[in-house]
Amino acid sequence: MHLLNHLQALLTLPVAVTAPGVEQFRDTFYPAIIDSLKYFGPETQVAVAAIAILLLDLVLPIQFSKHLAWAAILGCLAPLSGIGHYYEDSKSLFLGMLVIDPFANFFKAFFLLGSIPVIMLSFVSRKLEGRRMGEYYFILLSSVFGAMLMASSTHFLTLFLSLEILSVCSYILVGYFRTERKGAEAALKYIIYGSIAAAIMGYGFSLWYGMTGSGEISSLARVFWSPEHEIYTERNQQALAALTVTFAFLFVFVGFAYKIAAIPMHFWAPDVYEGAPTVVTAFLSVISKAAGFAILLRFLGGLSSSVSGLAPGDMAVKLWAGVDWRLILIVISILTMTLGNLAALWQTNLKRLMAYSSIAHAGYLLMGLSILGTATRYTGTQTIAFYLVAYLSMNFGAFAVAILVENRLNSSELEDYKGLGRRAPFLAGALTVFIFSLIGVPPTAGFMGKFHLFMGIIDVGGWPYYLLAIAAAMNTALSAYYYLKIARVMYFEKGSSLELIQSSALGRVVVVGMLFLTFYLCFCADSILKTTLNLGMHV
Amino acid sequence: MTSITWCIFLPLLTAGVLLLIPSSLKGLIKTVSLLGAFVTFLISIGLVRGYMLGESAPGGADRVLEERIERILDGAALGPAYSVGPQGKERWRADFLTPRIENGRSILVKPTVFSEFTPGAQEAWEQAAELILAKSVSLTTHIKFVEYLPWIQRFKINYFVGVDGLSLPLVALTTLLCVLCFVWSWNIDKGTKGYFVLFLLLESGLIGVFCALDFFLFYVFWEIVLLPMYFLIGVWGGENRIYAAIKFFIYTLVGSVLMLVAMLVMYFMTEPHTFNMLTLMNLAPGFSPGVASLLFVALFIGFAIKVPVFPFHTWLPDAHVEAPTAVSVILAGVLLKMGGYGLFRISYPMLPGTGTDKFFIALIAVLGMINIVYGAFCALAQKDFKKLVAYSSVSHMGYVLLGLAALNHTGVTGAVLQMINHGVSSAMLFLIVGVVYDRAHHRDLTRFGGMALQMPWYTGIATVGFFASLGLPGLNGFISEFLCFQGAFDFRDGATGSLITTTQGIHSPWIVYVSLLGIILAAVYILWTIQRVYLGEVKREEYKRFPDVSFREVLALAPLGILCIVLGVFPNGLIEFMNGSLTAVTDLVRGAMGN
Amino acid sequence: MSFSDSIFWVFATTAVVPAFLILFTRSIVRMAFLLLGSLAGFAGLYLQLNAAFLGFTQVMVYIGGILILFLFGVMLTQRSDIPVREKVGPALAVPGFFAGLLLMAALLFIALQNPWKTHPPVPVTEPDTPVIGIKLLSTYILPFEAVSILLLAAMVGATYIARVQAPGAPDGQAELSDSNAEGRLE
To answer: Which of A46, A100, A197, C105 is deepest in the core (most CB within 10 A)?
Structure first.
């Protein structure tokens, strides 16, 4: 705080310019901004760490470049101290641009802690060996910065901007091996789809801005929940309002759907997952997706929570033609999980398979979104937050094994996994556990996560939710087929080589950590459930 | 840790120890596994002996639940009016936790002042209400060796285990068969460590399924059984093992996810929400008939796949044929019983209204009949020795359905007895097939013959197994099949108490008459098999060099043969052992017939 | 149609038509020049909205700076090996066309029929730069600062990826066979 005081003294120099608004700036805006800075510590620390790494890389000889990973881990750990305690209430920062609340803190901690395995895996990844890593870790931390902003945005501008920070950083990470044709193509595809999604989302926001004249989510909520908005009652145009809200809602959703790889913006995922460096794929499939869900929760939650000053009972808002928006989410959820699982059945490349699997898991997670704003003991925020932690454990685990195997075999084709049960008993065993967790078989994290989601939707009840439950249950059985294909290849089929596969100690640490988390989340689920219980979003 | 927890987790613990042993020390691995399984068996025998003490058996469910209730009420702030001493607690309990009896079920309604309770008191009420409702089920008095610990409190999931006359014989069967399987598996040399670790994991899962009294816990153990089975078939299986393993896994998974959905619907439809199986036996019968039927169907599919009931049986021949002998033994001996056990423990007691519905009675009786006859015909057509035994399992599990559909004490006793008897005799048959397969390396019935001359001891033991399976009086199969038929002849309409003669156009005695065909067919295919394998000429020169059963093989086979005879001659001991629990279950179900 | 309305249409056409034409252009240089037209049209629209500062910034930064850099980059690095277009069969194209048409109709309907919430027109008395400055440093300070991270990341990434083309680097084909080449170069 000393630094802040100095800064304050420096900035309160007499202002020579007299322009309209200067007084207001000095008296109200300026103190508010300085006050906000106090709560902006974690983000600042991440940004500072990122830039420090970039500068440090300039002076380090190349053989030490890879050890910047430790600086990056420090850059992820240090901000945690500022997040450690949960704020009871939400506090608006930067004149309504951001908010700080338990929800934002949970996700910030999630992104920071989740990035540590990514950094560790980058360190052990042979593909990244011998390169200058300054740019890499800088961009990785920048994307974490973007993700953190996403979790606490309450204004279109920050929402859009943070999404773009994460996206642009992801494009670069995907194309990081600029010499590999697959990687370049994947990056190009990612950029094109990303730009289209961003453009459509921008259009959706402009529709909303046109209706409200404000960019804050809370003001949107008023239109969203009561299309009998004052400007429409004059002319009795509720139908038009509902139509506009529908389009605005769907267009904005497209932008988010792109981040979480849900239908209809899922096309990029298989190519990008396959083409990107495996570490980056892991990052995209967990952190980027989690950020997408955080912002979706923030957005839909903001639309439905008490911010709008409406009681929960008023939330049964109909879109155009009387459709409940949750029904749209249910349909998207069923389509996403079914399509992801069906397409995965035929895959022969582990990374591509995991891409479709991650689409399917986006479908499962959407189940949690579809119960937002309904009266249930297990809210959408809780179920999604818990599932994301579970998903982190099993997905990072699976990718960690994939990277360690790739280090030796230079391949992620399932064909090359033949006989892995003999060649790398530990890795194969661990991967099996993660696979079963991904299927959702007890006693693993994936099962608990899915169980929690099921509890949420069945608690709400009603035929759309029962249908969703049945669809998800059948999808679970369907997904078993292709997940088990991995286990089958590793254990039931003989490989051409019997040579043992060595893996680095740090890589094993990550795998063991994820294994621990996978079981911990099932056997001691209560501890995490208590945390997610206090997320405080009333949705 | 009580003895039952030891019984469930000792195999798992042994598996953990195995992981620490280098995989080259195969002998040590086998010894440790066998030791672990044997101690588990001894514990289960201890449980059986303890259970026979009756009223004074340790860990009675009613007592443990009562202690738990007291502890919950002690720990909660019950409100200012009730804060004084033990009397206050008693008064609170009398005021808010006295169930009302309605249609034979105990009902607790949230007190009107509930919203004025402190959150702590509300929670205490919900927890205590759940247990009080569990206590009021008549079955509770028969459950012993109970352990009750909170697990995931957010979902009200508890580690709640215990055994009664229905589950304890199955636990003992499991532990016994596992010991015999480990003896049998002494010759496993490929991936020994993995094999035994998975087998022990399987054993833990199986014992857990039979001991769980919390639906969630039941589901967890149910699924845990799947995983090792998949690998045991897939890695150590025969030619077509990959197909068989995946088919087994996906079939069962479809069933179990349906069960999961049904379980959650039940959880949310009860008030207070609960996974406690005893509480559910009290509350779930109150569901509306429409919902209850849907739940019943979902659960039935889940269990039917395991039994397996026609038309969900197609995984079974594949799995059996491909699985290694010891795994087949567990598959037939115990895994199939999980389905039947689920029907007895969950479907019928929790949804008796649907179970006693005419349509479902007829449906299950007809499915049982189809199983018996269709399974027998399929067995008749087989050339593969093991497939024949597999289809005979399908046929024999049909009797369980038939006895169950009867819904009277005789039928239910017969059905449960049939499960245990089939567990013994089919396990024996698979070992018998294993003996000859280990020598001839094929199972083609047309290529055997004259074993009786070469291997007289083997033939003698095998005959006991075959005749037990055939249902020869004096051996175990006869008793249970007879009881099933006797019960089925006698099944009555719940509403009128008269014999059901026509249900949905099916004349019920005909179901029994047609099923009786199964007995004849069984005699045909078994005698024919004996003739083809053991009698007649030796078809190949090399068969003459086959050694007779080894000591290891006798060690695995003899206990089963003895059990076949003992259970055939003195079935009454087992029937008496199960009587209390089965009467309680039957009463629970028949109670719904009255209304 | 008043004079100001007709001016609006001129600028709007200048902004939209080149953007539309880009879709049908194959040469990347032509695309860049069409983009120039589009950006100029937007600059005109800003000027017409009395946002003089914004309009001139648009001309100076976008047209004067970014676009020229862009053109340079294109001319220096133009390669033809990345497929620019993919063939779309009629099975997708025809329904796609009609779906697009329908969407456009719906959006036009919404745009024209809605009683949008509008701000009162800003008087042209004062220069608007101080207002913009204060807004940027108060209400919009966070996006204003955060965008710098975005730009920095984009710039670092762009240089990193563009370095493949650095003089002396092996050409694309050689790099494909030796993926560690640039590691050693550094």
So the answer is: A46
C and A interact (at least 3 Cβ pairs within 8 A): yes
Angstrom distance (rounded) from CA A140 to CA A287: 11
Measure A442 CA to nearest chain B CA, in Å.
6
Task: Tell me which DSSP letter residue A227 carries.
Answer: S
Query: Which element (helix H / strand E) includes B506?
Result: strand B506-507
Judge whether C137 and C131 are in contact, CB under 8 Å.
no
Domain boundaries, chain C: 1-79, 125-171
Nearest residue to A438 (alpha-carbon basis) of A406, A491, A384, A390? A390
ipTM comes to 0.88
Dist. CA B388–CA B429, nearest whole Å: 10
CA atoms of B51 and B180, how far apart (whole Å) = 24
Give me Rg for the CA atoms of chain B: 25
Give the residue on B whose Cα is nearest the Cα of A444.
B220
Counting as contact any 3 or more CB pairs under 8 A, the partners of A are: B, C
**Around Cβ B104, how many Cβ atoms within 10 Å?**
15
What is chain A's pLDDT, residue by residue, as a tens digit (539 residues)?
A: 555 565 555 555 444 455 566 777 777 788 888 888 888 888 999 999 999 999 998 888 888 888 889 999 999 998 888 786 656 677 888 888 888 888 888 899 999 999 999 999 999 988 888 778 888 999 999 999 999 999 888 888 899 999 999 999 998 898 887 667 788 788 888 888 898 899 999 999 888 888 877 888 877 776 665 555 555 555 556 677 778 888 888 898 899 999 999 988 888 899 899 888 999 999 999 999 999 999 998 888 777 654 444 444 344 455 555 667 788 889 999 999 999 999 999 899 999 999 999 999 999 999 998 888 776 777 888 899 999 999 999 999 999 999 999 998 888 888 888 888 888 889 999 999 999 999 998 889 999 999 999 988 888 888 889 899 999 999 999 999 999 989 988 988 887 877 888 888 999 999 999 999 999 998 888 888 887 777 755 44
Expressed in percent and rounded to 5, the helix, strand and coil fractions of chain B are 75, 5, 20
Contact in structure between A148 and A42 (CB atoms under 8 Å): yes
Give the separation between CA A12 and CA A452, rounded to whole angstroms.
53
The answer to whether B375 and B393 are in contact (CB under 8 A) is yes
A491 contact residues in B (CB cutoff 8 A): 231, 234-235
Q: Are the Cβ atoms of B220 and A442 closer than 8 angstroms? A: yes
Compute the distance between CA of residue A190 and CA of residue A192 in angstroms, rounded to an integer: 6
Residues of A in contact with B220 (CB under 8 A): 442-443
* Spans of all domains in chain B: 1-57+177-339, 61-142, 356-595
Nearest to A515 by CA among A429, A404, A423: A429
Nearest CA distance, B459 vs chain A (angstrom): 35
Nearest-CB residue to B257 (from A455, A458, A477) = A477
Could you tell me how many CB contacts below 8 A there are between chain A and chain B?
81
For residue B331, what are the contacts with CB-CB under 8 A and spacing of at least 6?
B229, B319, B320, B323
User: What is the secondary structure of B148-167 as a DSSP string?
Assistant: EEEEEGGGTEEEEEEE-TTH
The residue ranges of every structural domain in chain A are: 324-539
Interface C:B, ≥3 CB–CB pairs < 8 Å = no
Identity of the residue in B226, B257, B264 whose CB atom sits nearest the CB atom of A476 = B257
Those residues whose C-beta lies under 8 Å from the C-beta of residue B474, and which sit 6 or more positions away, are B565, B568, B569
Overall fold of domain C1-79: Four Helix Bundle (Hemerythrin (Met), subunit A) (1.20.120)
Question: Do the Cβ atoms of A476 and B235 come within 8 Å?
Answer: no
- Please tell me if residue A164 touches chain C, with a CB cutoff of 8 Å: yes
Check if B246 contacts A (Cβ < 8 Å): yes
